[in-house]
Amino acid sequence: MSADNKIALIPAVLPGFLMLILSIVLIFFHPAFVTTLETTMSLGLNIIAFILTFKWNGNPSGAGMRQ
After folding, report:
1. Looking at residue 30, what DSSP letter applies?
2. Whole-angstrom Cα distance, residue 46 to residue 17?
3. Are the CB atoms for 22 and 6 separated by under 8 Å?
4. Residue 52 has what pLDDT?
5. Taking a C-beta distance cutoff of 8 angstroms, is the pair 57, 12 a contact?
6. In b/e form, how buried is each residue of 8-34, taking b as 16+ CB within 10 angstroms?
7. Which of 5, 7, 20, 27 has its C-alpha lying 20 to 30 A from 13's C-alpha?
8. How far is CA 8 from CA 36, 41, 58, in A?
């Protein structure tokens, strides 16, 4: 793991992972004013954000460089 990815673990990946876990929990235990459809859509958006976080942090220093 490169130094850039280690630095990005705490501020980017860990909160995203926690949001993903909480959105899964929210599907089963949601308030009365929130529908299951809304919680499912929230989970879908959090999955997309989590995947994009990994893609964005994949190779920030070597992007576009040829070896």
Report:
1. -
2. 9
3. no
4. 82
5. yes
6. beeeeeeebeebeeebeebeeeeeeee
7. 27
8. 32, 26, 10
What confidence tens digit (pLDDT) does each residue in 24-63 have? 999 999 899 999 999 999 999 989 988 887 777 665 555 5
2 near 60, Cβ under 8 Å?
no
pTM above 0.70, yes or no: no
Length in residues, the chain: 67
Give the position of tokens 């959090």.
46
Contact (CB, 8 A) for 23 and 43: yes
pLDDT at res. 45:
92
- In whole angstroms, give the CA distance from residue 67 to residue 54: 22
